[in-house]
Amino acid sequence: MRVAVLTSSRADYSIYFPLLKKLEADDHFQLSIIAFGTHLSEQHGYTLKHIEADGFKIAKKVNTLPQGDSPLAISKSVGETISKFAEVWQELAAGLDLVICLGDRFEMFAAVSASIPFNLPVAHIHGGETTIGAMDNTYRHSLTHMAKYHFASTQHHADRVIALKGDAEHVYNVGALGLESLANTTLLNAKEFETKFSIPIQTPVLVTFHPETVAYEKNEAFADELVKALTTIQQQIIITMPNADTMGNCIRERLLAFAKTRSNVYTVESLGMQGYYSCMNLCDFVLGNSSSGIIEAASFGKYVINIGNRQKGRDAGKNVIHCEINAHKIRSAITTIKTAPKLGTDNIYWGGEVSQNIITILKKVN
């Protein structure tokens, strides 16, 4: 079975990783990886290097990075990505049996949209989820309608896919694939982390804050509120930089400027999968609006202050405290965490050997 996997960022690649390993190792499959989006961006850490360092060959590298973060730039990027992927599918479609996509990014939507006239079967991972504060809902649900096979992270999300499709054919609740990567990753201790990233880690607050793309005109104000809250935190802070989304640069600028004012605040474009999970394991708590706070953090027994609406609507465990993007309310949530009981590591997204479940299903239906 000839399979192309679409990866557009560090985030989806870390989720795909266990599935990619199994696809590559199984003689039933011929794997092609198509990398695009921020993977090719020096500003975002040129994360192609992580894919290649893991031993994978990249079949196609497609430059689709937006020329800016305005609505016009993002819209143009969608059109340009469709155009570029039309050429990709023209070249590859005859030699493919399946395209695998993940998530809800605008560039993923564009790449898959271009495949539709070529009648390529599509499998979608993480469909049925909701993120009220991001226009990703539109892209994610559109991918659901374009896909033939659906691998959802919870039964609730699977039920939403069924509602969107109008039937339950080829809808599977397999759990969150990224948690399998976590289970199979050798985590760095504090000394190893310092050696690799030149950060003497000291129980930091791990911060990842992406733009709210529905209310994108408020992102400057949101960034200011976040920074106000961060200034009251005296312990070490490690900030991973935001996605290439609408009005994301203003957040980036505010966070970089804040980091310059404090010697114990570090900004990192990409820690890679091992580095990020290690940092989450070593941190005090997680703050921001990344899906990793909703999905992965519970497996480390970490509390999460999920701010704003970007992740609102996703199933979340008891470790997640939802909070407005308001400095006073964020500080109040931090106080709550400091006196909260120690957490276990139960995770509502854990589905066991998710990659093997996907492999088994694909073998049965093809």
Overall tally of structural domains? 2
Q: What is the annotated CATH architecture of the largest domain?
A: 3-Layer(aba) Sandwich
Which class of secondary structure composition applies to the elements?
Answer: alpha/beta
CATH topology of the largest domain: Rossmann fold
Q: What is the total tally of β strands?
A: 13
What is the number of helical segments per DSSP (H or I, 4+ residues)?
Answer: 14
The strand order across the widest sheet is 3-2-1-4-5-6-7
Write down the overall geometry. Answer: globular
| pLDDT < 50 runs, ≥5 residues | none
Which percent bin holds the helix content?
A: 40-55%
CATH class of the largest domain: Alpha Beta
How do the helices and strands line up, and which of them pair or pack?
Elements: E1 2-7, H1 10-25, E2 30-36, H2 48-53, E3 58-62, H3 71-92, E4 98-102, H4 106-113, E5 122-125, H5 136-146, E6 149-152, H6 155-165, E7 171-173, H7 177-183, H8 190-197, E8 205-208, H9 219-230, E9 237-240, H10 249-259, E10 265-268, H11 272-282, E11 285-288, H12 291-295, E12 304-307, E13 320-323, H13 327-338, H14 354-365
Helix pairs in contact: 1-7, 1-14, 3-4, 4-5, 9-10, 9-13
Task: Give structural notes.
By secondary structure, this protein is α/β, with parallel strands linked by helices. It has 2 domains: 2-175 and 351-365, 3-Layer(aba) Sandwich (Rossmann fold); 190-338, Rossmann fold. It is 42% helix and 16% strand. The protein has helices spanning 10-25, 48-53, 71-92, 106-113, 136-146, 155-165, 177-183, 190-197, 219-230, 249-259, 272-282, 291-295, 327-338, 354-365; strands spanning 2-7, 30-36, 58-62, 98-102, 122-125, 149-152, 171-173, 205-208, 237-240, 265-268, 285-288, 304-307, 320-323. Helix 1 packs across helix 7 (177-183), helix 3 runs parallel beside helix 4 and helix 4 (106-113) runs parallel beside helix 5. The mean pLDDT is 92.
